[in-house]
Amino acid sequence: MKYKISLFLLLTAVLFSCQDQDEKRRAENAKEAKKKEAIFNNINKGWTFIDEPINEISESQLNSWTEWRDFMKEIGDKPRKTIGAFQKKSAAISKKAMALNNTIPTIFDQPAFRSRISILITKIRMLDLFIHLNKIPDDKVVFLVQEINKELISLERQMDKIVERAKVPKEEGEEDFLRMLDTARAIPNAVAPPQLDQNVPRVE
Question: Pick from 65, 143, 150: which is nearest to 116 by CA?
Answer without folding.
Answer: 150
